[in-house]
Design brief:
This protein is α/β, with parallel strands linked by helices. It folds into 4 domains: 41 residues; 179 residues; 105 residues, Elongation Factor Tu (Ef-tu), domain 3, CATH 2.40.30.10; 167 residues, Nucleotide-binding domain of ferredoxin-NADP reductase (FNR) module (Rossmann fold, 3-Layer(aba) Sandwich). Helix content is 48%, strand content 17%. The protein contains 14 helices and 15 strands. β14, α14 and β15 form a beta-alpha-beta unit. The longest helix is centred in the first third of the chain and has 41 residues. The chain is globular. The model has no long low-confidence stretch (mean pLDDT 88). It binds flavin-adenine dinucleotide. The site of flavin-adenine dinucleotide has 23 residues, from α7, β6, β7 and α10. One of its GO terms (cellular component) is plasma membrane. It is a multi-pass membrane protein. It is found in: Membrane. Belongs to the ferric reductase (FRE) family.
Length: 529
């Protein structure tokens, strides 16, 4: 090549690069516009609101479900719609879908493998479950209508057992079973699922090689994830080593243990046998064998409220006593009247996804009741990031809705610790607003503690007003005479259903103001506080 060719290539390259940079910057603007459009019309608004048995479903959820149904209906009908063919295909499709349901015994573990939240994975698991049941029903109707169906054939008997177990599984999907007795629901669900697989295996004809292959793939996947989970569990809890198991120290941290209306919070400190790195927003599943007579069969998820940039050797949990194992914990803690109790414990995890927060200028964390457990580690991380100058965040606002003041008193040491850490350059980024629905207050608004940075207000939090104030950015100090672009606002929620829906509507109206919302892994059943 001659020098002139090099010159032509270099000059052409520069021009093309400039055009590319221009196109890319245009595309990045377009991406933001598309993301706002998609959020406003698809992922934020509900098409089906919250009902007792169903919902809430956003437009996006409904679209995904429709696409999923359409794909299955297409496979069912293509290339012809003969009843016998469609019936056979429905059976095969049901089996293929079933593989997803047997991806693992512990939903949190599989959700982690897929990198999605537990809530999203549960939703998918439920949708696939309904699809399997629907397709199996089509298969059964087609088979019964065919002349060949007789009960003297053992394969048909197993078909009936399979369909019956699917029926039981569908019934168990109803929330009332889960809420009434979670452990019974879980074990019944697992037994019915195993029975269903066994029945399908016995139902399949010997020549159905591809169907048997699907069954083996499902079983193989299940065994693989189970083994991975068991090995992780053994390692995490040092089961066959001399290090000793983790131990859980249970302490009652409520104000007055005889107060019937109080929330009776418990703090659990889990001393680990191996240090563990836990990201904000992650949770562990805790198993405590000596708490009740069948507590060894149960494992319960709890958010890790402690946070450190490195590994932790003790994890802190903040627990609301309910009716089962958590009520037993409360009984033990009460029995000691102020004394902590220690139990052998096993953990799995940490599970769950963590939301990136460092790029937001303002982060508003909204919690109700025990939902504060999910936001405390984010507060710690944000303040650490500000002190270490490793994040862009310049304002953090905790908004906490409470029924009674006793929870605030229990959490006060944690909050004071946060306020103490937040003192870089004699400034501060953390503000705390606690909204109290009931309780004696001399004024509508008063300081909580000895400083102005935490206030306690009477009534319900005015969500639209709070979000608007943060968008205005009045609390962020800016250099005078310097035109500075306002940064993005992130609103994180661990709220009761009603407040969360209200927040979602508010954020949806402000998407163009660069406000985003993220729902954390734990959303408290606020009405049951
Ligand atoms: C990801 C996640 C994080 C959580 N973090 C916290 C936390 O930090 N602090 C806190 O107080 N609570 C938290 N919870 C809720 C907590 O797990 C339940 O309150 C606890 O398991 C109830 O135990 P119990 O035996 O006393 O329940 P029960 O009185 O038998 O049931 C009360 C309610 O808890 C549900 N529940 C029971 N067992 C389980 C289980 N193993 N898994 C899921 N739900 C169950 C039931 O469906 C029912 O609605 C979290 C839940 C999830 C899903």
């Amino acid at each position: 090549m001659e020098t002139t060719d090099f010159y032509a290539i270099a000059a052409g390259g520069i021009v093309v690069s400039l055009i590319l940079v221009r196109v890319l910057s245009y595309l990045s603007h377009l991406t933001t516009a598309v993301s706002v459009f998609v959020s406003k019309h698809l992922t934020y608004p509900y098409l089906i609101r919250r009902h007792r048995l169903l919902g809430p479903w956003t437009h996006f959820d409904v679209l995904c479900h429709l696409v999923y149904v359409a794909a299955n209906v297409f496979c069912l009908c293509y290339p012809n719609l003969l009843a016998s063919d469609a019936g056979r295909r429905a059976g095969v499709l049901s089996l293929v879908n079933m593989i997803f349901l047997f991806a693992g015994v512990h939903l949190s573990f599989v959700a982690d493998l897929l990198g999605i939240s537990l809530q999203r994975y549960r939703g998918s698991h439920r949708a696939v479950g309904w699809m399997v049941a629907g397709l199996a029903a089509v298969h059964a109707v087609a088979a019964v209508n065919s002349a060949a169906f007789t009960l003297s054939d053992s394969r048909n008997l197993f078909a009936i057992i399979g369909i019956a177990s699917l029926g039981v599984l569908s019934l168990l999907f109803l929330p009332c079973f889960r809420q009434f007795a979670y452990e019974i629901f879980l074990r019944a669900h697992q037994v019915a699922a195993c029975l269903c697989v066994y029945a399908v295996w016995r139902h399949l004809p010997l020549g159905a090689t591809s169907c048997r292959l699907y069954l083996y793939i499902g079983t193989g996947t299940f065994l693989l994830t189970c083994s991975m989970q068991v090995l992780t569990f053994i390692y995490r809890n040092s089961v066959f080593t001399r290090r000793g198991h983790p131990r859980a120290l249970v302490t009652y941290v409520g104000a007055d243990s005889n107060d019937k209306s109080g929330a009776k919070p418990i703090k659990v400190s889990v001393a680990l046998s191996r240090p563990l790195r836990v990201h904000p927003g992650q949770y562990i599943s805790l198993r405590m064998s000596a708490v009740g007579w069948w507590s060894w069969t149960q494992s319960h998820p709890f958010m890790v409220t402690s946070w450190s940039q490195g590994e932790q050797s003790t994890l802190e949990l903040f627990v609301q006593p309910r009716r089962g194992l958590t009520a037993d914990l409360l009984r033990h803690a009460h029995a000691g009247s102020g004394v902590s109790f220690s139990f052998p414990a096993f953990i799995s995890g940490p599970h769950g996804v963590t939301a990136p927060v460092a790029q937001y200028e303002t982060v508003v964390l909204m919690a109700s009741g025990f939902g504060v457990a999910a936001v405390i580690p984010y507060l710690k991380q944000l303040i650490h990031g500000y002190n270490a100058r490793s994040s862009r965040t310049r304002r953090v606002h905790l908004v906490w809705q409470l029924r009674t003041p006793d929870l605030a008193v229990a959490v006060q040491p944690w909050l004071n610790g946060l306020l103490k850490d937040d003192v870089l350059d004699n400034g501060y980024i953390l503000a705390i607003s606690i909204y109290l629905e009931s309780g004696d207050m001399p004024t509508d608004r008063m300081p909580f503690g000895k400083h102005e940075r935490a206030v306690i207000c009477r009534g319900l939090a005015d969500i639209p007003k709070i979000v608007q104030t943060e968008i205005d950015g009045g609390y962020i100090e800016r250099l005078p005479d310097v035109q500075e672009e306002r940064g993005e606002v992130l609103v994180m929620a661990s709220l009761s259903n009603e407040l969360r829906d209200r927040l979602r509507d508010t954020v949806r109206n402000h998407l163009r103001d660069r406000v985003r919302m993220t729902e954390l892994e734990f959303q408290p059943g606020y009405n049951e506080n």
